[in-house]
Amino acid sequence: MLTLIARVIFSFAVLCVLLFFTLGSQYLRVETSLNELNPSKIPDQNLQLATDKLTQDISHRFIMVVKGQQEEEVLSAVEQLQTQFGAISGIKTLSSNTMQSEYLNALSRFKFNLLNESQQRALGESSIDELADAAKRELYLLGSGVRVIPFEQDPLGWFSDYLIAKQSEIGISGEASDEPDSTQSNSGFYVETLAVLISQYPASMTAQQDLYQAIKDIESSLSERYQVEIMRSGMFFFAVDSAESAKGDIQRIAIGSVAGVLLLMVLVFRSLLPLTLALLSIVIGVSFAILVSTLVFGSIHVLTIVFGASLIGIVVDYSIHYFYHFLAENKTPEHHKAHTKKLMRAMLLSVITSLVGYAALGLSDLGILQKVALFSCSGLIMAWLGVIVLGPIVTRRPIVARQTFLVACIKAFQSVFARYPKVLMGIGLTLGCAGGLFLYVSKVNVNDDPRLFFHVSPSLLAQEQAVASLTQVYEPGRYIVVRGNSGEQVYATLETLYTELGANSEQVSSVLDWLPSRTTQEQNYALQQKLYMDGGVVDTFFEHLGLGDSQSSPIKKAYGDASGRYVDYPALAKQLPSLPVLWIEQNDEVFSFVLIKKNSALSKIETVSEGISNAQYVNTLGAATEALKTKRVIGVELLFVAYGLIAVMLVLYYRQLSTVFLLLIPSTASIITVSVLAAINQPITVFHIMALFLVLGLGMDYIIFAKEMRDGQGPDSKGRQQITEQAILLSALTSLLSFGLLAFSDMPIVQAFGSTILIGNSINFIAAISLFAKPQRLLEKMPNE
Amino acid sequence: MRSKLLSLLPSLLVSLLFFAQGTIAQENTGSKEALLSNMFPTSCSFSGQFSQQKNIEGLPVPLISNGDFFFSCDLGLIWSTDTPFIEAILYANAANSYRINDKGDVTPLTGIARYSMSKIVMKLLNGDTQYFAEEFSIVPSNNADEIKLQPKGSYMKKGIEHILLTVDKRDEQNKSIDFIILDTTGQTTQVAINGIVEHDIEGRRASFEQCEEHYPDTTFWCKILRSPSYLERY
User: Fold this and answer.
1) What is the ipTM of this complex?
2) SS3 (DSSP) at A361
3) Which whole-number Å values give the CA distances from A261 to A389, A730, A754, in the listed order?
């Protein structure tokens, strides 16, 4: 009955996988976002969604910086950069000139609603005559009197004054990049900046890589053509670079694992049937894992694939165990049933311990580990089912294993390690205690900074730092969120924040810097009545210039027509794609982000914002680091829980309290592993701790098989033990191959996993193959089959 | 942006006003820098009168003003308008520029006028020929007494179309110079300088005394130029 259920489930799963890969492959999407490493979750769903939008917006922008000694060269290079970027679909360049003209066009319709503080003050304090006289003097001033819109539309120059000051304030005046003095001051270089918006973010890794390559090609050709240095900065480059690094890991691990498995299977079994079953279980397991991950998460994270590639070494274990059990089977009918039962029991226990190890990763709040857990568990289950369902078909024909070489290897191992099991145990326990003591007394180097989890190309990092030194950049991962039930409430909070910050308000950037609130716009419009009413400033101004009323009529009419006309930030943002997403409306709630400029008084800004209701200071990096630290500590506690659970399982299963001591093997292996890594100064992270769950799960796998076989009685027990040892050796080799390859990854988090499992599992293997070996003298006394 | 550029014109003009007495339109006779060095004042302190006419597109009447100026390498520049209103603009140093009305009220130059490019004011007035050589192309004219300065850099180009400089050397004792500045908005500013007097003095103290002599009724202008912190006590 159970076999039938297993067959039905397996057939259904295989059908789903086939359908997915033939009809639904368009849904197959590889995620490369680096945010998966951020464990800090915002409890408020609306705020989380708003923050996600901001993060997405930031990740869809990057900056190009062109630097050179000759201005003409720099400008020509920028022009070419714009032209060539323009030819790439899905990206839009935003020069400071474009931003200026877009901003001017967007605001000029609402010029009567806009006043800066000094203008508001002047309208309140000065008489009509004084204001008209000041406007006249301004007009006469040499080098002044210039209007950003035609004179007739701004005769007093108030809007021009407002806009020019505002552009300078919000950093789109182009002053920093254009003015030779500011850029040449010390270095003697001209610098031009070009903001780039990725309007259609490439979905696939290939498309991302193509875009990255296209950018690099343009950069390279222009650097050769002009005497300039071209730099870039943006999350996109880090994501693609990391994905590229991960892709290298995937290829290395997958090719290495598959090649290793193929070689071992061919060498040992010299038959295509076992090889076919092994490969089928790998393909079915990994394909099913991809399907489940896509269904649950909508995509597969590139790091999941890296870890997933190491599954090859694990899932093949079931085939190996199956074949060796088949080989060990006493073919007499009376023994067949008992043996099959024993095999199923061992395989079930084996998959459960592996599943416990991998599922423990899912207990973490880290998105990436949850994805790895789901991918691995679903892959393991399906691969296991594959072996259980297809195994009997494959083993219908006789399977012969070449055992001489493996037996020789095992004997060599055992001659070293199993000669004196008690000594080995003593050494192991002593090393474990010493390691534990070392970890307890020494200051172990730990790392919870998510930035150090990824491999970052040194050149990319250098460019990022160079760009940061040349352009106005904001503190990464630090901002203030202001929320409210209405736009006006948000604006009111922002105004309070700016007032409280005082001079430090120049160190932050928010919607308040781009556009006043509707209430302020209404007030500004009302204030400007003094300028445009009959007998007002504009009439007096033209009178002072000797001109009649007809001159002021058009602007007075325009003022009248603009009554009741307002613009809000979302409407402005629609006209200005260059604007950062500083305003998000989510389920009747408004969220506004206040960005903090680099080198600002962070503690003052934090203190002030914490004292304002509806404002929340966010330090994502700090929160992520703190959260990762918590995860690391909780991970250790959970590890103890996992040991406890497995201890209970062992006692219940074997009905012997002493079986708890089996856990000494993975626990000693874990302590020694962490001590070794700490001793070689590898910073211990949450990923090392999570890998210890696998050391426990995989270690128990070997131990259970070894124990099962040692405890076996009967005339063929010697042969079965030898076969089991070979199975464990092969299984360990494939696992160590996969995780060993992970250990050599460029990615620190992958390396952490790989190195922990490589060392820990090696110790598990040595213990399993040595401590459970029956003494040679007993084996010799046992009759052969 | 354009306004920022245009606001450097007072200092630009003054620096160009006191060019040397030689011919200037032959770039091929030597390096531009050498050529420009002949245009700069031989004295470090000078004064004179100006007459200015601005024509703004959209405004049907010209804006005419008159006044006088005083420049010292050690102190800075005073640009004093007498008609149609009384007003003085003081360019003390890179960071300090002020407007003073007929009542003596001093206000820092803000808004458009703030963009005086004060950082380069002193550079220009002190005859930084390297700056001119790098930032302008000199286009000779058919008239030997006239040259056209065209900005080379994009920053300058955004604000200034060209500057037309005409020198009247018929009377060595009473040189006059006309400038016509055309900006990118179509606004034309014509400045005529005459009655230039070069002061043969050296040092900050002598310059201050010369300034006081030049503006005996408003000596606080000179004090502000000498020390902008004087404003705090003023």
Assistant:
1) 0.83
2) helix
3) 21, 9, 18
**Mutate: best of A66, A146, A160, A551, partner B, most B CBs <10 A:** A146
pLDDT in tens, A2-23: 678 888 888 888 898 888 888 8
Residue A25 burial (CB count, 10 A):
8
Q: Which amino acid is at A262?
A: L
Output A212-215 pairs: Cβ under 8 A, ≥24 positions apart. A212/A236, A212/A237, A212/A240, A212/A241, A214/A88, A215/A85, A215/A88
The residue assigned the tokens 């009959």 is A534
Say whether B183 and A146 touch across the interface (CB within 8 A): yes
Please, what are the domains in chain B? 38-232 (2.50.20.10)
Of the candidates A317, A398, A394, which has an alpha carbon nearest to the alpha carbon of residue A357? Answer: A317
Q: For residue A548, give Cα distances in angstroms to A127, A145, A481, B58.
A: 21, 20, 52, 14
Quickly list H helices, B149-195. Answer: 154-159
User: What is the rounded distance in angstroms from the CA atom of residue A358 to the CA atom of residue A354?
Assistant: 6
Residues B32-48: tens digit of each pLDDT: 565 555 555 566 788 88
* Chain A: residues touching B (Cβ < 8 Å): 71-72, 75, 100, 118, 133, 136-148, 150-152, 155, 157, 160-161, 164-165, 167, 173-175, 178-181, 545-547, 551
The closest CB to that of A545, out of B61, B81, B187, belongs to B61
**3-class DSSP state for residue A745?**
coil
CA distances in angstroms from A188 to A54, A68, A273, listed in the order given: 36, 9, 72
Query: pLDDT per residue over A264-301, tens digit each?
Result: 777 777 777 777 888 888 888 888 998 998 899 888 88
Cβ partners under 8 Å of residue A672, min gap 6: A428, A431, A432, A435, A759, A760, A763
Q: SS3 breakdown of chain A: % helix, strand, coil, rounded to 5?
A: 70, 10, 20
Residue B70 has pLDDT above 80, yes or no: yes
CA pair distance B210, B199, nearest whole angstrom: 8
Whether residue B153 and residue A71 make contact (CB cut-off 8 A), yes or no, is yes
User: Could you give the C-alpha distances from A704 to A519, A580, A724, A769, B120, in angstroms and in order?
Assistant: 74, 58, 11, 11, 83
Q: Which of the four pLDDT bands, split at 50, 70 and 90, describes residue A713?
A: low
- Would you say the pTM of this structure is higher than 0.80? no
Identify whether the C-beta of residue B43 lies closer than 8 Å to the C-beta of residue B20. no
Which has the closest alpha carbon to A425: A669, A780, A762, A693?
Answer: A669
Spatial distance between the Cα atoms of A717 and A405, rounded to a whole number of angstroms = 20
Query: Between vectors from CA A604 to CA A602 and to CA A607, what angle results, nearest 5°?
Result: 105
Q: Which of A569, A472, A575, A565 is nearest to A514 (CA)?
A: A569
Q: What is the pLDDT of residue B194?
A: 81
Which three-class secondary structure string do you get for B116-148? Answer: CCHHHHHHHHCCCHHHHHHHEEEEECCCCCEEE
Rounded CA-CA distance A411/A742 in Å is 29
In the prediction, which pLDDT does A401 show?
Answer: 66
B29/B19 Cα distance (integer angstroms): 17
- Residue A143: what pLDDT? 65
Q: Position of tokens 């502000």?
A: B224
pLDDT, tens digit, 9 for 90 and up, residues B174-190: 667 777 888 877 888 88
Mean confidence (pLDDT) of chain A: 81
Tell whether the model's pLDDT for residue A331 goes beyond 70.
no
**Token pair in block for residue A607:** 């203190």
**Sole residue written with tokens 């009220």:** B105
Q: List % helix, strand, coil for chain B (3-state, nearest 5).
A: 30, 35, 30
C-alpha to C-alpha distance for B39 and B179, rounded to whole angstroms: 14
Contact B56 A139 (CB under 8 A): yes
Structure tokens at A553: 């009529």
